[in-house]
Design a protein that fits this description.
Blueprint (H helix, E strand, L loop, with lengths): L7 E5 L2 E5 L13 H10 L4 E5 L14 H11 L3 E5 L3 H6 L1 H11 L4 E4 L2 H9 L1
Amino acid sequence: MPPVAHDCVHEIAGVRVLLCAPQGPPLARAADANAFIAAAWEHEAQLVAIPLARLAADFFELRNRVAGEAIQKFVNYGLRLAFVGDIAGPAAASRALNDFVREANAGRSLWFVADLDALRQRLAS
């Protein structure tokens, strides 16, 4: 599945997914999650796929709590969330982030996937 040029909704394996483009307003603080959630609701999406390019550089510095607070907003609104891109470098540099990614990928609400093809495979299984 090729990258998207603009935010759009696709049905993947029976799930309505808001595919966010790499360009656009970043998810830099917890309050920024509201725009992604509003777009998901507007399009009746069940899962929001956000490319790592849309995240602030320090988003995954877990001690600043931005990621946790933003992710909690998605959970509170009953939306699943996938971060799309190569997280291997940052995860290798942080034991806490590596553990977080592993635990998230074991669940059903939050995933870290390498690309949209991996998301499609994950949803199909």
